[in-house]
Specification:
This protein is α+β, with helices and mostly antiparallel strands and 507 residues long. The strands form 5 sheets. The protein has a 9-stranded mixed β-sheet, with no helix packed on it. Strands 2-1-5-4-3 form a 5-stranded antiparallel β-sheet, with helices on both faces. The protein is rod-shaped. The two termini are 72 Å apart. 24% of the residues are buried.
Amino acid sequence: MVLLAAAVCTKGGKVLVSRQFVDMSRSRIEGLLSAFPKLITSGKQHTFVETESVRYVYQAIEKLFIVLITTKNSNILEDLETLRLFAKVIPEYSHSVDEMGIADNAFNLIFAFDEIVALGYRESVNPQMIRGFIEMDSHEEKVQLAVRQSQEREAKAEMKKKIKEMDLKRKEERGGRRGLPGYGSSGMGSRAYDNSSSVVPVIADTIAVDQTSKYSMSQSSSARASTGVNKAMKLGSKRGNVDSFVDQLKNEGEDIRSNGVNDRNRPLETPVVPPSRVQIENVHLRVEEKLSVVLNRDGGVESFELHGMMYNKVFEERFNRVAIYLKNYLKGTQPQHVIPSRTLTSPSLSTPILGCSKWRLQSQDETYVPFTINCWPNDSGDSCEVNVEYELLNRSLELREVQIEIPIPSNAGAPVVSEIDGNYQFESRRNSLFWRLEVIEQHNSTGTLVFTTGSANPDQFFPIRISFYSPKIISDISIDRVMEPLENSSLKYSTESSLVVDKYEIV
């Protein structure tokens, strides 16, 4: 048999779907199908009708006709068997056998017709085989996919194993040293760190403050960030209102375009160090250190700089000059002392804290680095899986309010996080993924973040920026005792310390 075309049409002659299996012009097939309703005579039970050139084999199915157009010399029995197969297939791929159902599933029906007839000749198939061909369900394909997924999992596990081996080798090369062997005012060299009871005196003029102002020491940082600022001029104070207004417009469907300023370039917010809870004595000393670190993605140190400053404040006039003895400093060097010289005035709550000593450390030695990030983007073509791990190298520190900002390529879409220690937030305006942890200390010194984005260049996930603060300083310089120089008597004192990040990047 030679099957020219198959069609589904209404009893009025309207063609809903048609498929030609041999080369025929559109005008000819439209002419043949338009002539079909005129050839059907009412009251007769024939299932075919012939013309001078073709034969129509048809069957009514509800309010529609299934029509096969064949040559006149085709086998009528095979034509009828093919017609019955078409009648079984159509209800299976159309949710309803009416004009709307046929129109909605036209392409599915055409695909099924192509499985039944090829180049005008019927294929030896049944409805179950046609269903398998349409669904393209292959057991071999499933096995191949399972094997590929297993290989990918093994490759990822091997990659993580190699990464851990590299990290372990790097630690061994560092020699396990976590101290600071070169620390002092010059900040360079390899001089030995002295943990003995050696002390250095710092004699500093101080300003007396009324006893009622003791509370201001523990609340100084918060007061400057809250009530005091609200009563004065505050540059950029409208930024939050503008951001909230822009977000509201975006939620309402407005297209808000940037003026060319990328939010990604805004500096990472530095966490505010909370006020200390120590009992404030008549002599109060505060030690602050600011850390600036740039690491490369292989773990090497591009730059390391640590600035330290000690401040003192007293609450009685008789302590306007005290001697402060420091310990845990370097042999052959001493911190650079700042001896303030100010005239004693009447007690005032607004009296500032005075700096009495400062120090600086600059180095490219990896043993100084307290915290590191390893990031491994793996682009597979369709997607990019990113594995990020942190490690606390200086286990004596306790990092608080840790925030890790990972840039996300603008064309990669929102990341899908599959594994995380802590919590995260994606900010589309900055195109950044923020990984946040409240505390990192010895018991959770390592952590993992795994997320997936669209295909992207691995270099686009750098630089990674980090911010945190710590109640303990890196240098471990501490106060041995505080003396009154004239009477050579010891004084009660209180201390607090903090480490903040000025800049911490992985490039």
